[in-house]
Amino acid sequence: xxxxYFREELSIIKAILDKTPLEIAIKWGGEVYQxxxxxxxxxxxxxxxxxxxxxxxxxxxxxxxVLINANEEKTKALRQWRFTSAEQIxxxxxxxYVDEAIKNLEQGITWKPQKSxxxxxxxxxxxxxxxxxxxxxxxxxxxxxxxxxxxxxxxxAKQEKTKIARIEKALPLILAGKGLNDxxx
Length: 185
Known about the structure:
With 185 residues, this protein is an alpha+beta fold. The chain has helices spanning 7-17, 91-106, 123-131, 133-141, 144-155, 160-175, and strands spanning 23-27, 30-35, 38-45, 50-54, 67-68, 79-83. It has a six-stranded antiparallel β-sheet. A hairpin with a 2-residue loop joins strand 1 and strand 2 (30-35). The chain is elongated. The two termini are 17 Å apart.
């Protein structure tokens, strides 16, 4: 296990998840519990908490009211159950949530991503395209997902100097045909 925070607590969570009929797969460097190739639940440690996350948690009934959306702006279906100590771990409750997640998956209750519209290319990036035809060609060859990553990364910056800095860092990656987050995959 790669997590450096809450190691003992995460081993308790792992032992609970290992009691389920789910298969373990390694994705993004961590364990993901899945069924028939579909992600159901995973876990991890962070600085201030450790958590379970349910990939289709939005469909769980959440009788204990413990599930949260960690990022309202971007996260659609994933829900987290956060803990700060081993005393908060309730095996029976966790197994009930996992059981409900499995039943939902078996019934086909799952998030279906909506296709997003192509985003407008920021003016600062368009200026770079006008100055370098190779850059525009390289950008056009990227997958729609990778283009969207770059556009959102630049647009999310509040200050123009940050946008410029982000573009400068992105240029060599775009020219190399790489996505913004390829190094994490």
